[in-house]
């Protein structure tokens, strides 16, 4: 019966295609069912996420990302590195656990849940560490879609400026586009284009994370799936995959992300949820407020 319920719930998550919904359903399943330690979702979760990372690499076009962002890329890169560094510093200041702090800093600096779900298996983060970080960022993103257009009623930014602000200050791409769509098509185009520059940084993030959290048995600090990830990026660069191919690879990556997050959610127990403290919330919220104000100050 447990298998039937879990598989039915997983199919529903894939059909809806929502990452936040997927992990919440996984947590709900863990709450209502007593799943054994060898349950299939607890065994395949990390492996599915790792597989998705490889397909993500194949969908990344380095040349296209550089071409799209153009003159903005140096500034976006500076913003990403400054945000990530500040996030780590705030994590230390608030006393947040190392891996959880790292996840929140990376998610805020680059592309929210996608970045965190991508590096979690690289750094061997615990399921409760990833879930806490994802829940915090998902809530902030949901709030951002409402907050940013509301603030623009008073700020009266141009569509280009608002798009740039959303691209720099909101975590996930979907929420960036969602907020920009409330302002206009030009804002959407500008926001989506500049967000590519932030997303590009997921490549060095994975490589750096693998090295930073390497174990003694990993001489190069690069697990096998990270090497495949880099190889997939190189293949895309060398053969210039068509839009159809990259879209297909992105679809596979999204499917792996949804399945993986559902499985991660089923690994959470009630005690893990109860153990969520205010510290990571304060880290993420403080960093986000600084980013919102800082990016707005630069653009205006």
The residue-averaged pLDDT reads: 83
- Name the poorly predicted regions: 216-220
SS-based class: mainly alpha
Count of distinct strands: 0
Radius of gyration: 19 Å
How many distinct folded domains?
1
User: What's the tally of helices?
Assistant: 16
Distance between the termini: 58 Å
- Largest sheet at a glance? none
Bin the strand percentage. Answer: under 5%
Summarize the structure.
With 300 residues, the chain is an all-alpha fold. It has helices spanning 2-16, 19-32, 40-59, 62-69, 73-94, 98-109, 112-123, 127-155, 159-169, 173-181, 185-199, 202-212, 224-239, 243-266, 270-274, 278-299.
Fold and architecture overview:
The protein is mainly alpha-helical. The protein has one domain. The protein contains 16 helices and no strands. The longest helix has 29 residues, at 127-155. It is globular.
Keywords, please?
single chain, 300 residues, mainly alpha, globular
Secondary structure layout plus pairing:
Layout: H1 2-16, H2 19-32, H3 40-59, H4 62-69, H5 73-94, H6 98-109, H7 112-123, H8 127-155, H9 159-169, H10 173-181, H11 185-199, H12 202-212, H13 224-239, H14 243-266, H15 270-274, H16 278-299
């Amino acid at each position: 019966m447990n298998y039937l319920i879990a598989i039915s719930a997983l199919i529903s998550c894939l059909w809806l295609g929502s990452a936040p919904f997927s992990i919440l359903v996984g947590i709900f399943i863990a709450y209502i069912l007593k799943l054994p330690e060898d349950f299939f979702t607890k065994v395949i979760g990390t492996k599915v996420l790792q597989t998705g990372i490889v397909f993500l690499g194949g969908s990344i076009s380095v040349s296209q990302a550089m071409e799209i962002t153009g003159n903005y890329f140096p500034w976006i890169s500076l913003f990403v590195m400054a945000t990530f560094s500040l996030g780590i510093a705030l994590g230390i200041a608030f006393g947040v656990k190392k891996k959880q702090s790292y996840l929140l800093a990376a998610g805020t600096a680059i592309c929210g849940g996608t970045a965190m779900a991508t590096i979690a298996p690289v750094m061997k983060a615990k399921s409760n560490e990833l879930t806490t970080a994802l829940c915090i960022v998902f809530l902030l993103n949901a709030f951002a879609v409402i907050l940013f257009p509301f603030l623009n009623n008073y700020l009266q930014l141009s569509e280009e400026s608002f798009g740039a602000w959303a691209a720099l200050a909101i975590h996930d791409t979907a929420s960036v586009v969602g907020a920009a769509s409330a302002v206009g098509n030009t804002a959407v185009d500008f926001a989506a284009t500049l967000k590519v520059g932030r997303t590009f940084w997921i490549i060095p993030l994975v490589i750096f994370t693998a090295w930073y959290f390497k174990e003694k048995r990993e001489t190069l600090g690069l697990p096998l799936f990270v090497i495949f990830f880099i190889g997939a990026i190189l293949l895309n660069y060398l053969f210039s995959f068509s839009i159809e191919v990259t879209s297909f690879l992105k679809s596979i990556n999204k499917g792996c992300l949804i399945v993986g997050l559902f499985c991660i959610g089923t690994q959470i127990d009630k005690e893990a949820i109860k153990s969520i403290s205010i510290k990571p919330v304060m880290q993420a919220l403080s960093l986000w407020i600084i980013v919102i104000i800082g990016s707005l100050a630069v653009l205006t």
